Amino acid sequence: MQTLAPYLTGSGRGPWVSGVNRYQQVRPVHERQRYSTLIPIETIAMNCDRTRTTLDTAADWVVPPIRLGPVDAARPETVSLVERKLTALGVTTRPLVVDAADYHRYLDRARYQERWPEYFPTNLPEKSLEHYLAIQLLQPVRHDRFLDIAAGNSPLAEIVEGLVGCEAYAQDLIFSPGVHGRYVGGDACALPFEAGSISKAALTCSFEHFEGDADIRLFTELSRVLCGGGKVVVVPLYLNSYHAIQVDPRAYSEPLRVDSSCVVHLAPGWGNRHGRFYSPESLLERITLRFSTCFHFQLYRVVNTESLSPEIYVRWALLAERL
Known about the structure:
Helix content: 10-25%
Shape: globular
CATH superfamily of the domain at 76-242 and 278-322: Vaccinia Virus protein VP39
Largest sheet: 8 strands, mixed
Mean pLDDT: 85
Structural class: alpha/beta
Number of strands: 18
CATH topology of the domain at 76-242 and 278-322: Rossmann fold
CATH architecture of the domain at 76-242 and 278-322: 3-Layer(aba) Sandwich
């Protein structure tokens, strides 16, 4: 584990790295969005694995592998390369074809714009598709107990409850600790539910934000709370040809733990402090092989999204069934 120092020029939070080019121009990341920010590279420093908690000299700090601009994992070339790597590792993927007509029927039933007009109005095709795919893969029914993990302001729990009539919860750190009606506060890695009491769970555009070893600890907790045959879906599952952590250097003020041997992508303006993009190798190491005695995993490649919107970026989904 390494620590990414805060983006605070002259803050005195630690010795800044010298001997590198002070400013780097951030490359364009999207044909409709260009970053012109100049990033002072010396304010980005990494603490290698250390047993002590304090850093005394500049020699304790090293520059990690850094790339300027976000991870470009949705490109067809990247998706194809990831799929070839997965095949070489013996991982079978299945195509998940989006039925455009069925998706639009789902939109009519969910009524996002009528019920939640402020929910990602500029990115609703992506967000609603994530929900649709989660429901398609989980197939919740009335007797299920559904949990939307790291839900934020997502209406997925309410939508699932309305569609199938099951008991549904939304969990997030932003809610008060404990269970309060539909809302569950506290750490997702220490859920206030009895063992085997959840039958369906979803993480929609949230799993990538579990920092440090929290992704591993979450699946440990899911192995406890999911009943036998219970399922959890991760959509999107962010996969890349190499293991990467995407950060917005201005989105955090406290040191940020990042994975060892990752490439750090600086994405000014992204607005999030941490986003993990697994390589095929790191996905196996951290999740699927580690928990192979607890879960059966199936990886899906999402196809046909271009028929819905060019703004959609979901490419992969992971379904895990409790053994």
